[in-house]
Amino acid sequence: MTLDTDARILEEFKRGSRERAATAFVRKNQRFVYSVAFRQLQTQEDAQDASQEVFIRALQNIDTFKGESALQTWLYRITMNVCSNMRRKKKVQSWFRIGSQEDERDVAGSSISPEQHVLNLDFQSRLATFLTALPEKQRETFCLRYFDELSYEEMSTMVGTSVGALKANYHHAVKKLAVMIKDTDLYDQWREHHE
CA-CA to 89 of 20 to 30 Å: which in 50, 100, 130, 181? Predict the structure, then answer.
């Protein structure tokens, strides 16, 4: 049996094949969890740490999942809680920090060329700067819709906001980003995706 759906993964947990189910569970959801964590924490290292913590918590508590929401919704809530805790802990630690090395960056290994990697980092960095200028609800709605490709119904279940409000948040986010990006070289790419 291929473990490609939440129902099959949960069934595999119940049948006792926990290691196989856990592997499928992480593979299926790692991109989503990392994406949410990165948007919340803003650094690759913190997002990786948060993702690891999310999966540890989720796997320890998978037996308590009642199926009243989608598994992805449950993971989203765990991720937001973990990120919130990490931000609080960082605030406390920052009071005691003497120096920091915030300019350091991890460069992920990949099969793309170094030039393309630099261009991708530049685009992501610049888009992230524009996104931070948005109100939090608009930013999160935009990211869940645009990057995670979730439907408004899925988002509504996750964040507890009506579909209408989410559509309005997304619309306002797109308009604000278009204004911010209009006078940059990103604008042509932006128009291709939003016209």
Answer: 130
C-alpha distances out from residue 153 to 7, 17, 34, 80, Å: 19, 32, 21, 19
**Measured CA angle at 119 (ends 114, 125), to 5 deg:** 125
pLDDT at 119: 61
For 81-110, what is each residue's pLDDT tens digit? 999 888 888 776 655 444 444 444 444 444
d(CA 41, CA 105): 14
Q: Which residue has the tokens 């999942």?
A: 65
Spans of all domains in the chain: 1-94, 113-195
Q: What CA–CA distance (Å, rounded) separates 25 from 182? A: 40
The whole-number average pLDDT for the span 34-51 is 92
Tokens matching residue 18: 């926990």
Residue in the block written with tokens 């802990």: 89
CATH architecture of the domain covering 113-195: Orthogonal Bundle (1.10)
